[in-house]
Specification:
The protein is an alpha/beta fold and about 250 residues long. It is built from nine helices and nine strands. The strands form two sheets. Strands 3-2-1-7-8-9 form a six-stranded parallel beta sheet, sandwiched between helices. Strands 5-4-6 form a three-stranded antiparallel beta sheet.
Length: about 250
């Protein structure tokens, strides 16, 4: 009889995408570490109240490295795990779509903070593509408004000051409860409620591994903490798992 493979939940943060050329936020060379004022561009209150912040946000979106970024070894290793028959669920704090681009099944990737590739109107709720909105910016609209109602357009992402989608968060909690193995990869585990998923997994008896260059609040209670670069660590973890459960 074939051994049943353990369910693996992987919580990924900005650190998993740095090898793809996308800078993180809080690391030593992070976007906000180098320029604390840039955090305003990601804060709902400032974005909604200040047209200048919105104009700067649209320019930043157009220059986002994720438009041309390619998945790296860590993203590809998780795809390998899924294709080997492991029940893998990825819960990502990232908005760059690199897990799906690497080949992870889209329905198995839960985007806690939404996606940068869509926009929505904050008045009427109409949705569209980020590409169309950026084309309007390039054509001379520094702060494009909703074409249906004139409301403020915002990326389909969760900004600071906004609540996570309750259904998405509920799904993430269910995944953390059900898994036997929980990996937290490239995340500081300081932003709630995402960080609490680590605690949920621990409470339910999952083996927890943290892969992050900097210390996290959960290091002292994790089963394993890895400081090796993520592009090396995740493929190594996957290789070990494949060997343990052929």
């Amino acid at each position: 009889m074939t051994e049943r493979k353990p369910m693996i939940a992987v919580l990924t943060g900005a650190g998993i995408s740095t090898d793809s050329g996308i800078p993180d936020f809080r690391g030593p060379s992070g976007v906000w570490t180098r320029d604390p004022a840039a955090e305003k561009l990601f804060t709902y209150e400032h974005y909604m109240a200040d047209p200048e912040v919105r104009r700067a946000s649209w320019l930043a979106r157009a220059d986002n490295a994720a438009w041309t970024a390619q998945p790296n070894a860590a993203h590809l290793a998780l795809v390998e795990l899924e294709r080997a028959g492991f029940p893998v669920r990825i819960i990502t704090q990232n908005i760059d779509g690199l897990h799906q681009k690497a080949g992870s099944t889209p329905r198995k990737v839960l985007e806690l903070h939404g996606t940068m590739f869509t926009v929505r109107c904050m008045s009427c709720g109409e949705r569209g593509t980020m590409r169309d909105a950026l084309d309007r910016v390039a054509a001379g609209e520094p702060d494009p408004a909703c074409l249906s109602c004139g409301g403020i357009l915002k990326a389909g992402t969760v900004m600071f000051g906004e609540n996570l989608d309750s259904e998405t968060l509920s799904q993430a909690g269910s995944i953390a409860k059900a898994c036997q193995i929980f990996w937290a990869v490239g995340t500081s585990l300081t932003v709630q409620p995402a960080a609490s998923l680590c605690a949920i997994a621990m409470t339910e008896g999952a083996r927890v591994t943290i892969v992050n260059a900097q210390p996290t609040p959960y290091d002292v209670v994790a089963d394993e903490v890895i400081r090796t670069p993520i592009g090396e660590a995740v493929p190594h973890l996957v290789k070990a798992l494949l060997a343990a459960h052929p």
